[in-house]
Structure formats: structure tokens, C-alpha cells
Design a protein that fits this description.
Helix content: 25-40%
InterPro entries: PP2C (IPR015655), PPM-type-like_dom_sf (IPR036457), PPM-type_phosphatase-like_dom (IPR001932)
Strand order of the largest sheet: 1-2-12-11-8-9
Pfam family, one: PP2C_2
Strand content: 25-35%
CATH architecture: 4-Layer Sandwich
Shape: globular
Organism: Dentiradicibacter hellwigii
Radius of gyration: 19 Å
Protein name: Protein phosphatase 2C domain-containing protein
Number of strands: 12
Structural class: alpha+beta
CATH class: Alpha Beta
């Protein structure tokens, strides 16, 4: 469990499953800033054939980690950090084409938690959800072909769920054009708020309401385990890579009463996108 030095603690967990694919091309990480006051979560879903996608996703994580370690919390904005992470990773992924003779691409979704504020950015169709209890407050919009059709009134949300090109992105890191980045933020966070970041190998099998209910009811670790297990069942043997990060804001518990010395002593531990028309 990661804790902020405030009246609210962060119960956080990241988890992955290879699914039914030959290789795990997703990457996920949860980082604590050297100052101890800021947390960064990142999910990247790599694409580009054997090894290429994994290299692209790993580059997103490597770039984010390096920039976050050098991030000046008081002098740089979250947007500056996100722009540097995504644009630098984009250029380095493009360079991988010449080194590895692959066509690597990656999505990216990032969440920065500091004080009582959350800021996020994404490119592609890896998603971020913000829940208060089980109620959905906001969700990122995929940079995908079908979401473009929905936004322009050419396709209904129900039709989009079954569309044959629903996995085609219109932007990504590593594409010919510069990646398109969307930003979001939430202020006045409180105990009961939760954030879920995940690749499409997870969200593809759930409604927003189902995700909110699981995250609200369970600890971060148990929520990750339960969501992955259910996604595997619903995938029916043809599931994609799965990556998920859950961050829950919980109120600190009051100090426990001193244990009666006559009693037995013990301890307890509680611990889809502006991709170039590529289908993943």
C-alpha cells in the first residue's frame, strides 16, 4: 500500500496476465516520486508483431520512469510531464524501426496523483476510469475508428461494441504522425474515490457499471485479481494481454487501542485512439 502524507491513504495494486497470446506486449507500472508526495501510474499496450509491441510498450515505461524521477513537482505542470513522456517515447519508438526492423506502436494512459488532485493523459485506447464509490465520474474516450464514428453520429454506442473495426486506432505512439494526447483532471478528491487504468484486454469484457462495482467492493489487490479472473473466463480462450492498475483513496483508520498485556501478543499485516489504421 502506498501512502500519502495526508488524511487519505492510497491502496494501490498493478497486475497483468498474458491472456491467450504468445507474448505479453503490455506494460504497467506504479511509481512513487522521490519527494514522496506524488504517485504516477502508467499502462502501455504494445503493438507491432512479435517483440516489436513489447519493445514499444517498454519504451513508454522507461521514458515515463526517467522523466518522473526528474520531475520538479513545484515548478512543472502535470501536462508538461505527460507531453514529455508521450512525445519522447513516440520518437524513440519510431527509432526502433530502424534498429529492429519492426513496426512498433504503443498506447499510453498515465495518472498523476498529488495532494487532493488527479491529472491524467492518454493516447490510444488504453483507458482510465474515475469512480466515486461504484459511480462512474469520468472515463477516457478511445482514440479509435469506431469512437470517431460515434462522436460524429455515424454509429451508435451499441453498434460500436460489435463493429468489425473496433480495434483500429487513429493515433498511437510510434506512428507516422505525432501522437494525439487527451488530458483530464479531478480536484477535491476524497476517500471513496478510485482510479482504474487498463488495456483493452480488460475493459473489453466489462460494462462501466461492472468495473465500478468490483473496484468499490474490494481492495486494490483483490479487485485486480477478480477483474483479471473474470476477463479470462469471458475471453473463452482467445483473450488479449491484460494489464490493470487500481488506485483507491481510503480514509486513515484511527489508532488501535493498546492491547491488554494479559492477552496474547501478536502482529497482523494488512496490508482505442489516434493509431495509424492498425488493428491490434
Amino acid at each position: 500500500m502506498l501512502k500519502k502524507q495526508t488524511a487519505i491513504s492510497i491502496d494501490a495494486c498493478v497486475a497483468q496476465h498474458q491472456g491467450d497470446r504468445a507474448e505479453q506486449q503490455d506494460r504497467v507500472v506504479l511509481l512513487s516520486h522521490p519527494s514522496g508526495d506524488v504517485v504516477l501510474a502508467v499502462v502501455a499496450d504494445g503493438m507491432g508483431g512479435h517483440a516489436g509491441g513489447a519493445l514499444a510498450a517498454q519504451q513508454v515505461i522507461h521514458t515515463a520512469r526517467g522523466n518522473f524521477e526528474r520531475y520538479f513537482v513545484r515548478h512543472e505542470s502535470p501536462q508538461q510531464l505527460f507531453e514529455a513522456n508521450i512525445n519522447e517515447a513516440h520518437m524513440l519508438i519510431k527509432a526502433l524501426r530502424f534498429v529492429n526492423e519492426k513496426d512498433p506502436h504503443s498506447t499510453a494512459v498515465m495518472l498523476l496523483l498529488q495532494s487532493n488532485k488527479a491529472t491524467w493523459a492518454h493516447c490510444g485506447d488504453s483507458r482510465l476510469y474515475h469512480f466515486r464509490g461504484k459511480r462512474l465520474l469520468s472515463r477516457t474516450t478511445d482514440h479509435s475508428y469506431v469512437e470517431f464514428l460515434v462522436a460524429n453520429g455515424l454509429l451508435s454506442p451499441n453498434e460500436a461494441e460489435k463493429h468489425p473495426r473496433r480495434n483500429v486506432l487513429v493515433t498511437s505512439l510510434g506512428g507516422i504522425e505525432a501522437p494525439y494526447i487527451d488530458y483530464g483532471e479531478a480536484n477535491d478528491l476524497r476517500a471513496g474515490d478510485a482510479f482504474l487504468l487498463c488495456s483493452d484486454g480488460l475493459w473489453d469484457y466489462f460494462t462501466d457499471a461492472e468495473l465500478g462495482l468490483v473496484v468499490a467492493k474490494l481492495s486494490a489487490r483483490r479487485a485486480c485479481d477478480a477483474l483479471i479472473a473474470q476477463a479470462r473466463v469471458r475471453a473463452q480462450g482467445i483473450g488479449d494481454n491484460v494489464s490493470v492498475a487500481v488506485l483507491k483513496l481510503v480514509g486513515n483508520q484511527p489508532p488501535a487501542r493498546p492491547t491488554d498485556s494479559r492477552k496474547r501478543r501478536g502482529t497482523s499485516k494488512s496490508s482505442r485512439r489516434h493509431k495509424p489504421a492498425d488493428a491490434k
